[in-house]
Amino acid sequence: MVSKAVAKYVHALHQKKYRLRHGAFLVEGGKSVQELLSSALLTERLFVTAEFAAKISPLPPQIPVEVVSAEELTRLGTLATNQTALAVARLPQEPPLPTAPGLLLALDEVRDPGNLGTLIRLADWYGLPGVVCSDTCADPWSPKTVAATMGSFTRVPVWQRDLPQWLAALPPGTPIYGADLHGDNVHRLQLQPQGVLVMGSESHGLTPAVEQCLTQRLHIPGRGQAESLNVAISAAILLDNFFRAG
């Protein structure tokens, strides 16, 4: 049985204020936990079912491990059911923002953790140097966001910034792209994967202060009647156009 003190600590990490206070976050599910254990991120504590422990044996000797039932594991975490593993990991230190040429993904008020996690996963797929989130985005380290990255949280640096201020301070001449219904048809452009691609929330688009920083607006042409695209789908289409020639 997990002690009451440990259970209380794990439950506290369901909330952002306690994640920040303790400098830790939760990783749930076998795949995500295995990604964590094979990464450079620090694992503080591990909870596993006996069945899962047998699959990843030997367990890491330097990490406290508790073998628990699936019911207890589910009670500790946020998933509807969890029959594999849950880990407490240390929040990583933000690395310096890259200065070399490349394409960064910036997110403006993307408040759905599932979308945020998928966007981090997209950044991993296309090999982007990282993701810059406005301070009004969902928490990159919430359990739902981490789960939606499908392990990419271990590989993609995430920075949280005052987005208009950060964009305005970029070196002169840095291309800053943004999705816009009245922008240039992305299929007719030859885009280079350099600069910043900014994606906004599905319901409101880019905030005015961020929109003012754009150097080019990009439009994804459609033929049907859908009012809009999911932000992660839009980002995937745009990113593919940046890397098409490469």
Describe the structure.
With 246 residues, the protein is an alpha/beta fold. The chain contains ten helices and ten strands. The chain has a six-stranded parallel β-sheet. The protein has a four-stranded mixed β-sheet with strand order 1-4-2-3. Strand 2 (43-48), helix 4 (50-56) and strand 3 (65-67) form a beta-alpha-beta unit.
Spans where pLDDT lies below 50 across 5 or more residues = none
Separate helix tally: 10
Helix % is: 25-40%
Order of helices and strands: HHEHEHEHEEHEHEHEEHEH
Please provide the count of β strands.
Answer: 10
GO molecular function: methyltransferase activity
InterPro entries: Alpha/beta_knot_MTases, MRM3-like_sub_bind, Ribosomal_eL30-like_sf, rRNA_Methyltransferase, SpoU_MeTrfase, SpoU_subst-bd, tRNA_m1G_MTases_N
Pfam family, one: SpoU_methylase
Family: Belongs to the class IV-like SAM-binding methyltransferase superfamily. RNA methyltransferase TrmH family.
